[in-house]
Amino acid sequence: MKKLSLLSLLLIIGYASIKGQNYSTEFGKIGKEEIDLTQYPEDRDAEAVVLFDKGKSRFVSTENSFDIEFQRETRIKILSEAGLKWAEIKIPYYQENQIYEQITEIEAYTYNFEDGELKRTVLSTSNLFVEKVNNYWSQKKLVMPNVKPGSIIEIKYKINSQYLFNLRDWEFQWEIPVVYSEYEVRMIPFYEYTYLFQGAKKFDAQKSYTDNGIQRQFGSINFQDVVNTFIMKNVPAFKDEEFITSLNDYIIKMDFQLSKIHYPNGTSVDIMTTWDEMEKTFLKDGDFGKYIEKSEKLAPKTFDFSTIKDKTDTEKFESIIDYIKTNYSWDKNYSKFASKAPNKFTVEKNGNCADINLFTIALLKTAGIEAYPVLISTRKNGKIAYDYPYSHFFNWVVILAKIGDKKILSDATNVNLINERIPVFCINDKGLVVKEGKVDWVGLECSFASETTTEINVEFGASNKITGKIIKSLTEYFGADYRDLYADNKDLFADHENTDKISVEANSIQFENLNERTKPYVISYSFSANSEVINDKIYIDPFFENVISDNPLKQNKRTYPIDINYPFKKRYKAVITIPDNYAIEFNPEPLKISNQLFELNYSTETEGNKLIVSFDYYFKSSIYPATDYGKIKYYFTELIKKGNEKIVLAPK
Known about the structure:
- By secondary structure, the chain is of the alpha+beta class.
- Strands 1, 2, 3, 4, 5, 6, 7, 8, 10, 12 and 15 form an eleven-stranded mixed beta sheet that branches. Strands 25, 26, 27, 28, 29, 33, 35, 36 and 37 form a nine-stranded mixed beta sheet that branches. A five-stranded antiparallel beta sheet has the order 22-21-20-23-24, with helices on one face.
- A hairpin with a 5-residue loop joins strand 25 (450-460) and strand 26 (466-474).
- It is globular and about 100 Å long.
């Protein structure tokens, strides 16, 4: 028998692998390769795989203009139980005033190979749902029928859009592998677009040509489509982790932006403007700059400025922000524009973020404080491309106040935040300060550390039953988060803290400084737990599961920053009263790490019959570069290992 060389064997294996991924890209045509696929060779841990994802955008003539028709065909193979979530498909669509998008011609099927034949289940209209996301976006949700591991699902639909500014974007990369992704865009001579391509250096294939088929006509102009096709193959899954702004900031995708309009009469209009021109547009807008001016006229009727006339600017600032937070509420809607007139806002006393923060700016200006609106993009909305001055990047507005030499960022939508802070979801790179004059960007990063201190006192009763008391003290964003979650709801907090190892007495829970957000939010409570006894020895977790036990960083390497929102410190102190008939058999070794990125301290000491365990760690930056990923992952590993290390007591 002739032996194959190692090189020949590798070539054959490689060829078989490539050939095995030559799946059909024709909708409705399922091949044996797709049916037999049980594990994706390029990612054996993948819970599902996109076999193909094809999109087409083209301009269709209307009476006086054009709409954009977008068509998509997608096929997904479900590989495991975990992959069943991909059988729930969401199709977003947009509506603003008289501009709308409409989803049509939905076809969706589930294929299962059963009893030697391929069986197809058609999506029923009863499995179609519409959900409103916000004032502008809704989504049609499809729940695919009869899906299980091994199923193949495919969906086809069209979206008719009047929103020409944004040609449909295309994501080549998903959180599961994509075998084949193709986007075809048919351009016409009346609209010019720029596109932003991120996440890869080039396409696997790209071609452009003029369609020499049937000639089209608009007005007196005859034209033919210019077809652009972009293809990516074998795109790896994006392994999403903790400490990331938005998936959309890093996946392989392309975004289209309208840059110029050419009219049939020969005139043209530039849509891609400058940041300076954009600011001027916002200042003239009735729901932005003019809204602030109207609110300034209304301000004296709304707020009694005589009560703060003798105060410092800092005190005036605090009084006005406190007044807004006390008397007005956020309706949970994101927007860069006000949703109602100022006089209506003051009557109804609620509104979107722009209503609240633009009105607050008016009050600050009326009080003599220099204040400006700052346009930002929230974390989930993604980062701003600073080379492309488009207003649609922004979806929120915050406050910039200048008091002396100090610049203060603020937001009046969250009553539990310190007045000199913006919500965590707004901490995203930079914001555009909207004012006359030069273009000014302000950093949104937070340099203030949020802190948690947990003190635990532990005693042993009959049969070594554990009883104890815990006091938690939380500052800054930690305090705001807990106030948002629990307020003074004892039952809700007890439900959260109760585990199979610890039982919290709801009646013992006490809250302090609930409404004093500049002070630590303090929660104290009593608890009980059963001892972990093995061979008469007691094993104690000194911090009773208050330290995290799972590393949030899973990947071996990372190419994008570790964005933890804000620096933070966590301190733990446990005082354990040792039973009279026991002694310490194992006491964890002390540990100290200290550098410019991170600090950790672990130590123990004894005072009479008490063992005192102290543990703290401190992540010093809000953003770490990708080059520090290995170090940050290691620090998490060390703090988890040390913070969950057990103490052993043995009978004397």
